[in-house]
Amino acid sequence: xxxxxxxxxxxxxxxxxxxxxxxxxxxxxxxxxxxxxxxxxxxxxxxxxxxxxxxxxxxxxxxxxxxxxxxxxxxxxxxxxxxxxxxxxxxxxxxxxxxxxxxxxxxxxxxxxxxxxxxxxxxxxxxxxxxxxxxxxxxxxxxxxxxxxxxxxxxxxxxxxxxxxxxxxxxxxxxxxxxxxxxxxxxxxxxxxxxxxxxxxxxxxxxxxxxxxxxxxxxxxxxxxxxxxxxxxxxxxxxxxxxxxxxxxxxxxxxxxxxxxxxxxxxxxxxxxxxxxxxxxxxxxxxxxxxxxxxxxxxxxxxxxxxxxxxxxxxxxxxxxxxxxxxxxxxxxxxxxxxxxxxxxxxxxxxxxxxxxxxxxxxxxxxxxxxxxxxxxxxxxxxxxxxxxxxxxxxxxxxxxxxxxxxxxxxxxxxxxxxxxxxxxxxxxxxxxxxxxxxxxxxxxxxxxxxxxxxxxxxxxxxxxxxxxxxxxxxxxxxxxxxxxxxxxxxxxxxxxxxxxxxxxxxxxxxxxxxxxxxxxxxxxxxxxxxxxxxxxxxxxxxxxxxxxxxxxxxxxxxxxxxxxxxxxxxxxxxxxxxxxxxxxxxxxxxxxxxxxxxxxxxxxxxxxxxxxxxxxxxxxxxxxxxxxxxxxxxxxxxxxx
Length: 642
Hints:
Layout: H1 3-15, H2 24-34, H3 40-55, H4 57-70, H5 80-92, H6 94-97, H7 99-107, H8 111-121, H9 124-136, H10 141-153, H11 156-171, E1 175-177, E2 183-185, H12 229-256, H13 270-284, H14 310-337, H15 342-488, H16 516-641
Helix pairs in contact: 1-3, 2-3, 4-5, 4-9, 8-11, 9-10, 14-16, 15-16
């Protein structure tokens, strides 16, 4: 496998690893099987990279994070895993891997990315001043200096040529050391300006058209053109019949000559393998999912300490100070007025309790009313169903009448439509004549517009020809002017400037005039003074930080004492509240029981009244039916007598 492809696989195996689901070994084996990696060396390399990146994740993450911080404007976030893999190879595996192989990995990626990576990771100043301090926060000094930093610095000389090559590919230049110890770049020479040398292009010769000879001969007109539809249909039927016979013959002969392989008769364990694979896949299916563990129960007296940050400390201190100010104000008011607000607070709490009790009773009353309203709604719904049935019978009778009326209206509309169709036929004939006249008028207008376009095209061509002549005159004038300039010598482009002396002044006779050398000396003195001021400021900041830390520790101790006192008070208050709630629930339960008894009495009375009303209604309906029967009988008797 090529270095670039192998490095890409290392990124994929590390990115797809999820420690909460699988182990490192299982994930590595699955990945190698899925990617079909058959080479033993590549598979072993991928496993070792995954183990190393997981084991030394903290070391690698610190290095890559500072690398991104240093070159934040030149890196992209998607390359974070690639830099972690390269950092692991550089720090821990470079001796085993050998530098030529590591160089192949570097050269397989973009030159700019690898140049920034090598400049940062193998730089002694960066390792001592940046990474060493961060690594010492998590690891021993001996391990950091003798293992991490020593492994990187041991390959600095071998890496120098590779860094220069990457720099050349990235910048197009290569820095080299001068005799004075500094560096300078092999910058490309700038372009020297030259006068224009315009020449008149020779007219392009138009080649003569080639003579093309063709032996193409058109086929004769088929006889089917002159045949009638009957002969054509007969020919098509014959062709279909012939094609069908050819197809039957083709596939019949193919079926008879089918080859039979003797491998089909051999014993095979294919079905057994299929069954094992299906059982293995079914065993891996887990539709129930992973059940989450319940959250740990918090025990307030377990002795665990919560670390507070600065914002939490200051916020809690502000709350404590506010409470102290309120208590001090209460004591001051008591000293001045010789009374406090305890009696008022007690009265206020009693009134609130009475208001809450009144609200609770009001809610209970409304609940009972809602129960009664529900029963009334049920009765109203039953009555509404009866009324709807009566309305449905009436609507059916009205629907029969509407159907008869609609039938009459449809017959009238049919007669009206016949009359309108005749009118439309007459109107279409008139429209056809109008369309013919409009076509003639449009053809006339089109011919006029075409004539105008031809005149406009002719004028535009004349203007273009005139413009080309003016441009040709302008080019001739420019060439004449350039020939005059070339004859007079052209100016001093090739003149050499005088040599620059940094110890001399500009000679402008100014009061603050100084040489470049003096300017450099003064700048160096200013830089030294600024460094001294910065160091003094740093010491002041350190002292202020230490003082602030001492104050914070005092505040934390005070907050802990306040918390312990508040916890004891809260425990006592919760105990009293629980006892009060138990007593209040008992009283409410008794009141609810009494209210339910009253509600049941009212419901029974309503039910009894409703039953009596229904019985009275049934008696009235029975009497009405009997009266109708008697009337009908009297009517029949009268009819018989007539």
